[in-house]
Amino acid sequence: MKLSVVSTLYRSAPYIRDFCARVSAQARAFAGDDYEIILVNDGSPDDSLQLAISEHLADPHVVIVDLSRNFGHHKAMMTGLAHAEGEYVFLIDSDLEELPEWLESFARRMHEEKCDVVYGVQVERKGGRFEQVTGTWFYGLFRLVTGVALPRNVVTARLMSRRYMKSLVLHDEREFFIAGLWHLTGFDQRAEPVEKLSHSETTYTLGHKVSLLVNSITSFSSAPLVGIFYVGVTILVFALAYIAYAVYVRLTAATPVSGYTSLIASVWLLGGLMVSFMGVIGIYLSKVFVEAKRRPYSIVRDVFRRSA
């Protein structure tokens, strides 16, 4: 198999037919008849699965991986990659905001530069002011906390060599940040500027973005735990310095250091820090708990694939 195209389905019914037609045209130009289109149904509540099965019956190149429920976009993508058999793997979203026609330019770049991955980055981040600002602080905070410089405004679409893809799916984590894994896997990766379309408003609220940031950082780095140690040491140094100052004043001025308000403020400060630190530790403990149980990150209910 020369090429595998992998995509996920969730509320994708309006796009499936057009997506399959356009992807098939690009795949045929790239690999002749030696390709497959893997659609992972991530527990979509609409009729995406039925439409995908219709595409499979009409075109045996279309492979359907039906998950038992909704596991999330990132886990569905990893499941699809695990089922890919191609020498090259083209990962792309099915909502047509990312163009199937990018395959041609990605393949040309990969051939010219002999690299393992060509991935898309937005020339200008799509969406309104909220989308652009939150995207900027997401990558900025991630880099500040973890020290890892992820490509900014990266999209899902990427063309990968099989050796890269096989290394990527070796990550057997239950809670993961897939953009971090793309970067962590290494190999020779090149960015291709693209213009992503926007068919609708983003469904990611500020709360969702904060949750994603917390999950991304704690899944990819232990920096917050190290940060807790240094903050604790800093507080200890200031506390010792204040104690020394209070003793000095008491011995020299023969009067105690006053300040009931500052005392209460200090108690609230330390109490808040302790609770927040316990919360950070709790997040990591919960991830250890999830990983220790070794539950599968997705469950496949059925696979529709043509016979060999």
TrEMBL record:
It is a multi-pass membrane protein. Its main location: membrane. InterPro entries: Glyco_trans_2-like (IPR001173), Glycosyltransferase_2 (IPR050256), Nucleotide-diphossugar_trans (IPR029044). Keywords: Glycosyltransferase, Membrane, Transferase, Transmembrane, Transmembrane helix. GO terms for molecular function: glycosyltransferase activity. The chain crosses the membrane at residues 225-248, 260-285. Residues 4-162 form the Glycosyltransferase 2-like domain. One of its GO terms (cellular component) is plasma membrane. It is found in: Membrane. CDD domains: DPM1_like_bac. This is Glycosyltransferase.
